[in-house]
Amino acid sequence: MVIKALLFDVFGTVVDWRTSITREVAAFGQRHRVTADWESFADNWREGYSSGMAQVNDGEVEWRNVDRIHRERLDLLLAAHGFPKIAEYELDQLNRAWHRLDAWPDAVEGLLRLKSDFVISTLSNGHLGLLVNMAKQASLPWDCVLSSELSGRYKPDLAVYRYAARILDLSAEEVMMVAAHVFDVEAAAQAGLRTAFVSRPLEYGNARAAEVAPAGRFDIEATDFNDLANQLGCA
Amino acid sequence: MVIKALLFDVFGTVVDWRTSITREVAAFGQRHRVTADWESFADNWREGYSSGMAQVNDGEVEWRNVDRIHRERLDLLLAAHGFPKIAEYELDQLNRAWHRLDAWPDAVEGLLRLKSDFVISTLSNGHLGLLVNMAKQASLPWDCVLSSELSGRYKPDLAVYRYAARILDLSAEEVMMVAAHVFDVEAAAQAGLRTAFVSRPLEYGNARAAEVAPAGRFDIEATDFNDLANQLGCA
Question: Are the Cβ atoms of B150 and A149 closer than 8 angstroms?
Fold first, then answer.
């Protein structure tokens, strides 16, 4: 079966959230005369994301989008770091730093090459509005923007991957999931999709060891999007 | 309230379905040595679309996508025109002519101008897979591809317009519907969206008079996408 579409995880796979978020929170801290380890702050903020999504998938809470999940964690973190009361407008602006993340250096070039041969789409836990803003900001040339939000569940729920293939009017094996996280690629494989693992060893800077794909488990292992394009035979 | 996103009807508004379909059915007829008025054939094929969608909105049938609606009408039309038995593969290829429609001459240039200032998205009754194929074929530079399919109803059901605004994380009045059909723009207005009517006097060639917008009813009336971009202040 020929691969027709590539679905990309976004946070960490396409964009370098940690560098962008660290820069934004550091500037915010400076403005309010608060000092902290801003890389840790960014990592902490990101951690709230997983637990917030797990609550949705476990049925503990109704669907809530990533802006809301980020905002709850941000409020806790700002209080813990002794920030003074901040105007709502400014908090909202900071929370939307997750809409303004820089792409990894190879991402746009690699996506443009892949786009010549395949439909390229997001399949992110970020909500659609966030992904559309991010694509404009970072010049990500998606053919289509898909989000977990459309299926009302978060990855790695298998319903998310199945919904994406179905809404593209493709069978699961015509679709390849591309991600830098083993749990995401594993779940896509369970849902019947083809799989590509792309390493992003700098996702967590020096704070965490790079994720490594289990040997031979995925259809493709690539070092970046240009390498993925090479392995898929793109010009 | 500032407009942030423009939603575009596609068939007739962005692409010239009649010229493209007429060309494809004429070539198909020639290959099978059948003669007919191919413009009428195209118009007839298109008419099946409205009744097929109305059946869904009226609850007479389950959701079915536009490929399926087109195919049912195509089978009837081919039989009525005395075509011999055709291979399934070839029928499917012909049915997908609706994925390969040419854009109106001003469309891509106008969309690129509008894209600098707004999120530009489809909001079509075509299903998502069809719209993605069409965008690649016709170089339509969408930020996002939205379809009635996502809400399980067809335009002009108001749920379609409301869903689109909500999934973009915008309020209805931050979104403008752009279409060449009064019924579509009227429904968008009822759903609280801003509205732009673009005239496409050649949609039905000489077979039908051009649609005219009721005077003063819509926020913008434009002669094409460049005029729309001018009126919205785009560079």
Answer: no
At residue A150 the predicted structure's pLDDT band, cuts being 50, 70 and 90, is very high
Q: Do A144 and B130 touch (CB under 8 A)?
A: no
The amino acid present at B15, given as its one-letter code, is V
**Searching chain A, which residue's CA lies closest to the CA of residue B65?**
A169
The pTM (predicted TM-score) of the whole model is 0.96
Q: What is the separation of C-alpha B54 from the centre of its chain, rounded to a whole number of angstroms?
A: 16
Q: In whole angstroms, what is the distance from residue A182 CA to residue B50 CA?
A: 46
Return the residue of B nearest to A141 by Cα: B143
CB contact under 8 A, A169 and B144: no
Please report the ipTM that was assigned to this predicted complex: 0.94
d(CA A63, CA A152): 6
Contacts of B167 in chain A (CB under 8 A): 128-129, 149-150
The pLDDT of residue B207 is 87
Residue-wise pLDDT for B54-89, tens only, equals 999 999 999 999 999 999 999 999 999 999 999 999
Under an 8 A CB cutoff, do A150 and B150 touch?
yes
**Which is nearest to A173 in space by CA: A186, A181, A162?**
A162
